[in-house]
Write a structure and sequence with these properties.
about 240 residues; 9-stranded mixed β-sheet; alpha+beta; about 40% helix
Length: about 240
């Protein structure tokens, strides 16, 4: 009696369980890396003001909106003078389960913000090409900005409405100019109310970027930082625009 022996390479490879496990794990991580690189990150920026109440929030949608994360900023209070806190912010981070993941409260003043900006101004200049690159890769999916305002003086209401139209058009045009892709035209609305003092505004902006572009931007920043460490004081990357 003859016993046939299977000589197929896959059969022989399956006899080595450790190698098979390593192969499966490697394929899994490669597939996961590709998904994380390709799957876009969608961000929604929200700001609302109704009377004296403010609300600001950020919503991040990862893996085609399968993993939403929300950051809420509430209780934004303005100061009476420059030395008091500019903003008193209470933040709350929630995940898909709607349960708070983290809560924080922080105050910011004008001098504090100015000091932080001045302290890090050289980084803004150094990494400017990387910032321009990632901004150019942003895709604006939706922009909606609605404002209702009014004063007891009808003439003042008309003048303010015209100035606000100019401001909104300028800001929306700048945003669409510095970003690379646009899906819809901006929806800008102003509702004037005469002979009554009122101010309500609602701002929604949704944009999208791929993680691969963020990774490239980070690599550019690392390259610039290393070049600056090796050649202190060099202005090469501060003047050079990204490809």
């Amino acid at each position: 009696m003859f016993i046939a022996k299977i000589q197929h390479p896959l059969w022989q490879f399956s006899q080595e369980p450790i190698l098979m496990i390593l192969l499966i794990v490697s394929v899994f991580f490669i597939a996961l890396l590709l998904i994380l690189t390709i799957a876009p990150i969608r961000t929604k920026v929200i700001y609302q003001r109704k009377g004296e109440d403010d609300y600001a929030g950020l919503e991040f949608f990862l893996l085609w909106s399968l993993l939403p994360v929300r950051i809420e900023l509430t209780s934004l209070q303005g100061p009476r003078n420059i030395f008091r806190p500019l903003l008193k912010i209470r933040s709350k981070i929630t995940s898909k389960g709607k349960k708070p993941v983290d809560r924080k409260e922080k105050s910011l003043s004008v001098p504090t913000i100015y000091q932080k900006l001045m302290r890090n101004s050289h980084y803004f200049k150094l990494f400017n090409p990387a910032f321009k690159y990632v901004i150019k890769k942003l895709k604006v999916l939706n922009l909606r900005w609605e404002t209702t305002l009014g004063f007891e003086n009808a003439a003042l209401t008309g003048m303010t409405t015209g100035a606000l139209w100019t401001l909104k058009g300028l800001l929306a045009g700048t945003l669409y100019q510095i970003t690379g892709h646009h899906k819809n035209t901006p929806q800008l609305t102003i509702n004037p109310v005469y002979n009554k003092e009122v101010f309500n505004t609602e701002f929604h902006c949704i944009f999208e970027i791929r993680p691969g572009h963020i990774i490239i931007s980070i690599l550019k920043m690392v390259k610039m930082w290393l070049h600056n460490r090796i050649n202190p004081g060099s202005e090469k990357y501060a003047r050079t625009a990204p490809n």
